[in-house]
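Researcher: For the annotation table, I need structure tokens for Methyl-accepting chemotaxis protein. Please keep the output clean. Sequence:
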Amino acid sequence: MDSETGKKRSWVKSAAIGTVIIGGITLVANKNARTKVVDTSKRYVEKTNELVTFVSENREPFVDQIRTSAQKMTDVLDETSDDVRQLAESAQHLKKNTQEIVDTARETKDEFQRLSEQLKKPLQEATDDGEPEGTGEHERNST
């Protein structure tokens, strides 16, 4: 802490102490102000005592309400936890199904390629035998 900050804090402390002293002197010297402070303090004490008495006499409704609220919160948290668990399970299931779809699509693609190669072989053999493409048995029968 530098000396300037220390001086500022010291000044603030001195001002606060001075304010309290001046306020105390004013209260001691001014009977009207002293009466107002005492009356206000008495009212605050009375209201606080009334509140404490009311809560003491009606403790059960407060406790019941707190218990009910706590139970509702627990129930909501349990339901939320179950929902999150179900969402996680659904996400895992969806991930598994998506992977199965991708695998099936790859297998289908591979199967189509294999079938395409098998179909190309007879056509290739037919063209190698001197028969032009498109003049095979099927085309001759369709005319």
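Researcher: And a one-line annotation?
Model: The helical segments are 3-29, 31-57, 59-128, 137-141.
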